[in-house]
Amino acid sequence: MPSSTFVSEPLTPLHASFDTHRMAQGEPGMPHQFRWRKQEWEVAEVLETWREHGDCTHGSGERYVRKHGYRIRTTTGLILKIYFQRKYGKTQRKEISRWWVFSIESES
């Protein structure tokens, strides 16, 4: 059974590697290639997707998608959970990455 290691590190999408099909559906364009831990990675397969929702911060009762998550396999066989954070929050700066590596999955 796979286990996972929490990472919480930003990744940098490489230019012109976004999934335009997802963008056409209103989702973030998941990068097919990205830089993380001083190495370039390429997505071989999307294994799973998910969304996290949150309430409107202005009291309207509406709910919004806060994160788009992806469980991916890289071309090297590494399985990662990555996510896109839609909103920065009030105290965060715009320079902060919106794409993150959440965890690394490994066989135990």
Summary tags:
seven-stranded antiparallel β-sheet; 5% helix; mainly beta; 108 residues; 1 helix
Explain this structure.
The chain is mostly beta strands. The protein has one domain (about 1-85, about 95-105). About 5% of the residues lie in helices and about 55% in strands. The chain has one helix and seven strands; from the N terminus they run ββαβββββ. It has one helix at about 20-25, and strands at about 1-10, 10-15, 35, 40-55, 65-75, 80-85, 100-105. It has a seven-stranded antiparallel beta sheet with strand order 1-7-6-5-4-3-2, with no helix packed on it. A hairpin with a 7-residue loop joins strand 4 and strand 5 (about 65-75). The longest helix is centred in the N-terminal third of the chain and has 5 residues, at about 20-25. The radius of gyration is 15 Å and the shape is globular. The mean pLDDT is about 85.
Quick take:
This protein has one helix spanning 20-24, and strands spanning 2-10, 12-13, 33-36, 39-55, 63-74, 79-85, 99-107.
Topology (SSEs and partners):
Layout: E1 2-10, E2 12-13, H1 20-24, E3 33-36, E4 39-55, E5 63-74, E6 79-85, E7 99-107
Antiparallel strand pairs: 1-7, 2-3, 3-4, 4-5, 5-6, 6-7
Mean pLDDT: 85
Task: Classify the secondary structure makeup into a structural class.
Answer: mainly beta
* Helix content estimate: under 10%
Distance between the termini: 6 Å
Low-confidence stretches: none
* General form: globular
The Rg value, from CA coordinates, equals 15 Å
State the strand order across the main sheet.
1-7-6-5-4-3-2
Number of domains: 1
For the secondary structure, the number of strands is 7
Largest sheet: 7 strands, antiparallel
Total of helices: 1
Give the helices and strands as they follow along the chain: EEHEEEEE
Q: β content, as a range?
A: over 45%
